[in-house]
Design a protein that fits this description.
Blueprint: E1 11-14, H1 19-31, E2 35-39, E3 47-48, E4 51-54, H2 57-64, E5 68-71, H3 75-88, E6 92-95, H4 102-115, E7 119-121, E8 127-130, E9 135-138, E10 147-154, H5 157-169, E11 174-179, H6 190-199, E12 205-211, H7 216-227, E13 233-238, H8 262-271, H9 283-287
Parallel strand pairs: 1-2, 1-5, 2-4, 5-6, 6-7, 10-11, 10-12, 12-13
Antiparallel strand pairs: 3-4, 8-9, 8-11
């Protein structure tokens, strides 16, 4: 499972000529990410930040052996962008876009699963960052992350940054941080990332940042308990005071009846032996590394 996310990717930016694509291409390059190509239909032959632009993903793959894509494409066109990336042979697709229709997400995740060796990160994700390898495929502020020993998996972008900052200030740093996305339906999940972190020698402890809604945290707690997970894990759950049946920030952060409540998630983690931090600043101490 160590290869779920490539730590030395050759990245293609889909939607590179748009405002967000251009901005974050520059920031990712500055961090050290190897961006080999961009794709915008009808803009082939241009350059953005000295990165060649192609009309189709398969051209970028054929010319530069790209293996990872990051999507900066408006929601109505994201489905086609992801399907094109999969068809071109891309192995990791980071879907930054939010507001994608659920039926579109279901379709491209199903295709990725059918292929067997394609990982979808997101949708509605800040991406991933590996400070020890100077790789950032996403939109997170790089200055809060430092090379270290803590793996972070999160449903929330901004909480990822805040908690990473606390972990950095505690002198622990991060081995890799992955935003799984804030939508109700996402590709890569907590359980797969826990398995990846388990096999990663650089990762000595894991932080799971969850929130109300869905059952991703409960599944993660079940996996930890069933496998007698060998590394320390600390959880944080956002939205403890959220009113029921009101969406809180993320499309997936909504409690319906008794399903997906903060209490159910905290109780499940506690039963699995995972300490749940009351506030982000407690996390580094609870890791006890």
């Amino acid at each position: 499972m160590t290869s779920i996310i490539n730590k030395d990717p050759k990245v293609v930016v889909q939607g590179i000529t748009g405002r967000e694509g251009t901005l974050h291409t520059a920031l990712m390059l500055r961090y050290g990410t190897r961006i080999v190509a961009g794709v915008t239909p009808g803009k082939g032959g241009q350059q953005v930040q000295n990165v060649p632009v192609y009309n189709r993903v398969f051209e970028a793959v054929n010319n530069h052996n790209a293996d990872t894509s990051i999507i900066f494409v408006p929601a109505p066109f994201t489905r086609d962008a992801v399907l094109n990336a999969i068809d071109a042979g891309i192995k990791t697709v980071v879907v930054i876009t939010e507001g994608i229709p659920q039926k579109d997400t279901i379709e491209f995740i199903a295709k990725a699963n059918k292929n067997g060796d394609v990982t979808i990160v997101g949708p509605n994700t800040p991406g991933f960052i590996s400070p020890p390898h100077s790789v950032k495929v996403g939109i997170m502020p790089a200055h809060v992350f430092k090379p270290g020993i803590v793996g972070i998996a999160s449903r929330s972008g901004t909480l990822t940054y805040e908690i990473a900052w606390h972990v950095t200030n505690a002198g622990l740093g991060q081995s890799m941080c992955v935003g799984i996305g804030g939508d109700p339906i996402v590709g890569l999940g907590f359980t797969q990332l826990l398995e990846m972190f388990k096999d990663d020698e650089a990762t000595k402890g894991v932080v799971l940042i969850g929130e109300i809604g869905g059952n991703a945290e409960e599944l993660a707690a079940g996996y930890i308990k069933q496998t007698n997970y060998p590394k320390p894990v600390v959880a944080y759950i956002a939205g403890r005071l959220a009113p029921p049946e009101k969406r809180m920030g993320h499309a997936g952060a909504i409690v319906m009846g008794n399903v997906g409540t903060a209490k159910s998630k905290i109780d499940t983690f506690t039963a699995a032996g995972v300490p749940v931090a009351a506030k982000p600043s407690d996390i580094a101490k609870l890791l006890n590394l």
